[in-house]
Input
Amino acid sequence: MAQQPELDHGEDVSLHADQATGRSRVAGRRVQRTVNFDQEVLDRARAAAAHLATHTPEAGVRSLADIVNPAVAERVAELEERFNSGQPFDPVFRLPPGRPREWPDT
Output
């Protein structure tokens, strides 16, 4: 099982184990997470990663993570710009399982 990155709480912050948000995790460490993909998207991404890693080293793709990480980073930056004045969202250390049943009234 992959080890969780240490949390950077800073010296002036006290977080309770049940607290959902707080300061960011220590940067630069890779962690393993389970996410669900549409089958077609995953198949295409895996095929691209395998082909590029084997035949096109100049693409800079050695694994599926080399495709997924930049794509997620780009999408998150877009959402931060659009919905949070270009600032990072507050970190969340626990997400409830599944999707919200209903969207909150806005």
